[in-house]
Specification:
By secondary structure, this protein is mostly helical. The longest helix is centred in the middle third of the chain and has 46 residues.
Length: about 290
Amino acid sequence: MARRTAQVLESIYLMNTAEIFRESIRIILLHPTHFHSISIFLFSPLPVSLFLSHFLIHHFPQIPSSTITITDHLLGHRLPNLLSKTIVHIIICLPSSITFSLLGRAATVQAVSDSYNGINLDGRRLFMRSGLAWIKLLHTRLWELLIILGLFGGLVVVLATAPKVLYVLGICSTEIGFWGVLGLLSIPFCVSFAHVMVVGNMASAISVLESECYGLDSLWKAKTLMEGRRQTALAIALLSNMGFRLVECLFELRMCMGISMWEIPVLISMYSLLLVFETVMNVVFYYSCKS
């Protein structure tokens, strides 16, 4: 088994984005039943929560407005409506994100690992092992969440204080100062946020595949492993998020035009399969970096 793993690592050495894309499709087509079962039973609650949040925002527009009111009191300025909707999506999707979604990621990572190691995939064993890996994944995700909250917290503090300082110094009004500081910080903030996300994606694979490495250690190891490969990681994340957003836009479009009941399960299945595919690509990328 060790020799087979070495051969696999050699065959996927330094894959580019297109090769990782093709390799991920090949793995999924080798075991379509198992990956489809993971998408249905473990990943589907996340798109259900996401589409539910879109439905609530569409039919109850006062929900984002209440979010804007809270941030208005906090910052002294109104947030864009898109950002307030994003906050609502995060709140509604959080329970399924830290339960079923993490179980699905753990099962998918195990399935790819077993495929590379020549182990016959067994659905019951995959689900049991994913349950054991869930705690480690949750630990890793919590550290990732703390880092992201630190980024957002720093941004909020600067946006709340810098415009007032500029106003006291007589440089500009608080309104102009707010949007000026926001424009100045938006690019470094987005770059830092994207970096944390791609490191977190690989850290999830490390937390499942390496028994003694999880939490902050897995994030640090992921950062070290992808040195020189960050463009590939960003390209994978970009492709995945484009697919997710496309399905969301399709749901919003059909909801505005009058969605049929049979379309909802189809869209949920599409989103769930994209989650499986994203996880498989990140595992292949992990093996490519590790080789």
